[in-house]
Amino acid sequence: MSDMDPIVTGQDAPDVFMVRLAGIAKTFHGKDGRTVAALAGIDLDIPRGGITAIVGPSGAGKSSLLRAVNLLERPDAGTVIVGGRDLTSLDEEALRRARQSIGMIFQHFNLLANRTVAGNVALSLELAGWPTAKIGPRVAELLDLVGLTDKASQYPAALSGGQKQRVGIARALAPNPQLLLCDEATSALDPETTRQILALIRRINRDLGLTVLLITHEMAVVREVADQVVVLEAGRIIEQGPVAQVFAHPAHATTRRFLLGETGTELPPHLADRLSPAPLAGGATLIRLHAVGDLAASPLLSDLGAAGIGARLVAGRVQPLGDQPFAGLVAALTGEGAAIDAAIQQLRARGAEIEVLGHVATDAVAAG
Predict the structure, then answer these.
(1) Which of 36, 47, 95, 33 is nearest to 68 (CA)?
(2) Which of 83, 127, 196, 292 has minimal Cβ neighbours within 10 Å of its Cβ?
(3) HSE (CB half, 13 Å, CA atoms) of 95?
(4) What is this structure's pTM?
(5) Does residue 307 surpass a pLDDT of 80?
């Protein structure tokens, strides 16, 4: 095996999973004597070659779970299998070598200020014992990949946040890892730079066949780049699945709350304050609707109008979800109650997720 070949940490696993976590538990002990269960028996399989996002509120255990994958935080219980090899069974030297197949990029870049861009990228190769003659060409290849060839001799202080993160990505890719871990890799960046970095991660995933596991608190990141999503709360997995499925049919209240801001379907305050659980004479029924694919691209509200129901858009939008459209809408429906119920059932039969939020007077809708 040459130094330019991917590092192999064990025999290729016969299954389709790059990472398999079983029974992962981690407890932290505070100075005040209290204990906090950061992870409470996590079982999780990460598909090879895809991008899996872990999302959840602060304190949910996202960082602890990510750092358990390369044993930067060794779990109190459970097994961590990466590339078919049980990392939790390795001694320190074998674990050090195994970690060379796992790249990691960080929220705050973690670059060495006294090394140039090229020097930062070269560091992991030096630590891995690559021959000096092979390090220079590999660094040049990676800087070209991330679009920083002209920055090779500059120091981190001269770089923008997005450029620093590109250096971090190049450094993580240097030893040809099988798995890339991203620890809130875009949360310190502005929206446009975030989109650029996510596009780079997606291109790396596609072109290099690299498995990516990322943590984030932003559903926009999940929507833009991930194939699979795992939702954590209080150290437990509360929901997981393909991104389109979870966005269109969120099963848990925490997931639905996370989606409100991203889908633009949070009920405006002037309507939320006047919401009634019971129908109002001459009033409107408010619904929240999620749909993916052809249904999302169809004239949903116009279809309701054709059925004799008044339909007014209150909030929401249609936006890309991977390679298909995703609609998140709040609409006010007016008409006979039985006709509204029938129309909702028809939309559900076509694959829409619909939540009836309540009822308001029509003048409240008009005021919006």
Answers:
(1) 95
(2) 127
(3) 16
(4) 0.87
(5) no
